[in-house]
Amino acid sequence: MLCHRGGRLIVPIIPLCPGHSCRGRRLQNLLSGPWLKQPMELHNLSSPSPSPSSSVLPPSFPPSPSSAPSAFTTVGGSSGGPCHPTSSSLVSAFLAPILALEFILGLVGNSLAFFIFCVHTRPWTSNTVFLVSLVAADFLLISNLPLRVDYYLLHETWRFGAPACKINLFMLSTNRTASVVFLTAIALNRYLKVVQPHHALSRASVGAAARVAGGLWVGILLLNGHLLLGTFSGPSCLSYRVGTKPSASLRWHQALYLLEFFLPLTLILFAIVSIGLTIRSRGLGGQAGPQRAMRVLAVVVAVYTICFLPSIIFGMASMVAFWLSACRSLDVCTQLFHGSLAFTYLNSVLDPVLYCFSSPNFLHQSRALLGLTRGRQGPVSDESSYQPSRQWRHREASRKAEAIGKLEVQAEVSLEKEGSSQG
């Protein structure tokens, strides 16, 4: 109900005021508080935004964990005005059970994958090296999910101290980067096996693949090292924050966030198109290797899209809404962005599905351990290389014979010209 004092509007929406009067001074102090003058932007942990202390809050609004500023939610205000950060209990209530379920499923699936790759997979191939690296990246996430569950159960209140917060954010960000990098490496490895089977990289040894994976890990750790150098500002523990203008560290984090999605996706789509064209032009449709490569890449794209696309869409929408000062839209977009982090963490659950498609040996061993197969089968190759079809070999032989015939004709013509010139 609207409350007035001397014909002057005090606040847009106030509960019913007894005696048609309000405590106007207290409301004016609340509305003119310092937290209303803060600009808003997606902010990084390394450059925290100032938050109002409990000493400046009115007595009728005591501080609580549920009312602490959140990284991704805002009060819906009128377009064109300042947007004010606040928390969302709905996001916390959604993320806590979802992350707990992802922890259980991811731990079971990746423990099984690690056991199969290390104990039952012999010999290793270059593809196995990249799959094991993906398992290692998933364990980085799984080991940190219990802390995130506790964080959201307490309504975005971090209680483990600044060092643990920075390490937690570093591990989560490293998992995302490593998942993207090694999914791309698996896709490009399949591309080389099918499209360029005679290339030196296609025939790389397990040791060479391990060195490549080690170099990728070093780059991944360096790209996310800035999260360990930031400063902690409780009670929240998030790598993004609605707060002051972005720092250099935040701009780097945002650029990396976008680049590590669009660049690998472009490479994966290039690999899919190239393999499809190769299968069609060389008549490889009936062979298991190339068809398995296409299935692997289809699963890679599915995992990639489900896990990472929602956060990209809502993150970009949040930045656009902030630039336009559309507070109500920003409120919705930032809550969706925060909730979409559950899809990002879902990659640890979906990656074992990729292992089944990428490695026939892994699928066979999984069925054997679960008691779903009878008898014992021989080893299954994990490589996706191919042997050209009979039609393609015949066509290539005809082309070579035709080329040789043309060269012979040209040689005879040149000899005749030389003989006539000498005569």
Describe the structure.
- With 423 residues, the protein is mainly alpha-helical.
- The protein has helices at residues 24-31, 89-120, 126-142, 145-153, 162-195, 206-223, 248-281, 288-323, 327-345, 347-358, 360-369, 390-422, and strands at residues 3-5, 8-11, 42-44, 240-242.
- A hairpin with a 2-residue loop joins strand 1 and strand 2.
- The chain is elongated.
Shape: elongated
Strand order of the largest sheet: 1-2
The helix fraction, in percent, is 55-70%
**CATH topology (fold) name of the largest domain:** Rhopdopsin 7-helix transmembrane proteins
The number of E-state strands comes to 4
CATH class of the largest domain: Mainly Alpha
Radius of gyration over C-alpha positions, nearest whole angstrom: 30 Å
Mind telling me the CATH superfamily name of the largest domain?
Rhodopsin 7-helix transmembrane proteins
CATH architecture of the largest domain: Up-down Bundle
Span from first to last CA?
A: 116 Å
Tally of discrete structural domains = 2
Largest sheet: 2 strands, antiparallel
Number of helices: 12
Q: Show unreliable segments.
A: 1-80, 375-379
Q: Averaging pLDDT over every residue, what do you get?
A: 74
Tell me the β content: under 5%
Please trace the helix and strand order, writing H or E for each element: EEHEHHHHHEHHHHHH
Main structural class: mainly alpha
Subcellular location: Membrane
Region (Disordered): 45-80
Family: Belongs to the G-protein coupled receptor 1 family.
Transmembrane segments: 94-117, 129-147, 167-188, 208-229, 255-275, 296-324
